[in-house]
Design brief:
The chain is an alpha+beta fold. It is built from 7 helices and 4 strands, in the order αβββααααααβ.
């Protein structure tokens, strides 16, 4: 794989995350106390969200001098969004009897590491562009490989591939009956993400690195 093609694939992978789906969800506070969200029979706890926020801060993604209240709110919503998305991808893959193994994750990560100029540079790129903490990089690539599989053999950045991914994730999201604690916003059915987020995500676009 050439450096150019690897960079293009990395850009596509980063873009697929934001272009992947419109999930069906219902608003309102989760039934389980202490939950940031309830996804199917599983809950995303506030403790999980706080742990994710701490990991992102430790990775250096928070800009120095950012207002504390805005920083806290933005990081929390971003964490909830990513944790929900991970569960939806898992359900979509399971529904289609698809799996992502460690070898596939390692191969995708290694290819992008070479393109980025090493593991450290890749980690920094993912922190800056996607808010992925160091310990979450394998999870990120599990999602990206999973999205590629949900495209059904088509280019995941093409119109047909994107449509296949959307259908898979819409089906999974609908089946999971996602509920989000109102403090983190509400789940938007027209895009993948919580409303009121501060992220400048660009649906149906591949964001340049």
């Amino acid at each position: 794989m050439t450096r150019t093609s690897s960079v293009r694939r990395l850009r596509a992978a980063l873009g697929v995350t934001v272009a992947a789906a419109a999930l069906s969800a219902c608003g309102g506070a989760p039934a389980h106390q202490g939950a940031a969200a309830v996804v199917g029979d599983e809950r995303i706890t506030i403790a999980q969200v706080q742990a994710r926020m701490s990991a992102v801060r430790a990775g250096g993604t928070v800009q120095a001098g950012a207002p504390a209240a805005n920083e806290q709110s933005g990081l929390a919503r971003h964490a909830v969004n990513d944790l929900i998305f991970d569960k939806v991808i898992g359900r979509a893959l399971a529904d289609r009897r698809l799996k992502v193994d460690a070898a596939e994750i390692g191969a995708a990560r290694s290819a992008d590491s070479r393109s980025a100029g090493g593991d450290a540079k890749l980690a920094e790129l993912l922190r800056v562009k996607r808010g992925v903490p160091a310990e979450g990089i394998d999870d990120f690539y599990r999602q990206q490989v999973g999205l590629t599989k949900l495209a059904g053999g088509q280019d995941p950045t093409s119109a047909a591939g994107d449509a296949a991914i959307r259908k898979a994730l819409v089906d999974a999201g609908t089946a999971l009956h996602i509920q989000v604690n109102p403090r983190y916003g509400t789940w938007d059915t027209a895009r993948i993400g919580l409303t009121d987020t501060t992220d400048d995500w660009l649906p149906m676009n591949v964001r340049p690195l």
